[in-house]
Automatic annotation (TrEMBL):
Start and end residues of each NADP-dependent oxidoreductase domain: 24-101
The name this protein goes by in its record: NADP-dependent oxidoreductase domain-containing protein
A GO term, aspect molecular function: oxidoreductase activity
Length: 110
C-alpha cells in the first residue's frame, strides 16, 4: 500500500479548531528507551508507511528524537511541511502547577 493510500485509510476526527487528527497514532513511550540512533530511523520508517500522528511526552524521553526524525523527514521530502503531522505530548503531573506549566510547554515545543 502506498503512503498516500495508507494515510487515506486511517480515520480522522475533526477537532473544534477545524484541524483533522488521525485516530491512529504512533506511540513513542517505551522502557527502556532505545538510543536516538535506534529511535530516529524507527520514527522515519513510521512516517514512510503513513503514520501522521505521533504521541510523546517529556517523561518518555522521546520528544527530541522525534523532532530530529521530523526534521530529517522534511529534508528527505517524506513530508512537505510539519503541518502534515499531528504530534501530541503530555504535561507530567508534577509540572501541573502555576509557574511550571509554561516552562514545561516551552521545553516540549523545543
Amino acid at each position: 500500500m502506498s503512503r498516500a493510500m495508507a494515510a487515506k485509510t486511517i480515520p480522522e476526527v475533526v477537532l473544534n479548531s477545524g484541524h483533522k487528527m488521525p485516530n491512529l497514532g504512533f506511540g513513542t513511550g517505551t522502557l527502556p528507551l532505545p538510543p536516538s540512533h535506534v529511535l530516529i530511523p524507527a520514527f522515519i520508517e513510521a512516517i514512510k508507511v503513513g503514520y501522521r500522528h505521533f504521541d510523546t511526552a517529556a517523561c518518555y524521553g522521546s520528544e527530541e528524537p522525534l523532532g530530529e526524525a521530523i526534521a530529517q523527514a522534511l529534508d528527505q521530502g517524506l513530508i512537505k511541511s510539519r503541518s502534515e503531522l499531528f504530534v501530541t505530548s503530555k504535561l507530567y503531573c508534577n509540572e501541573a502547577h502555576p509557574g511550571l506549566v509554561l516552562p514545561a510547554l516551552k521545553s516540549s515545543l523545543q
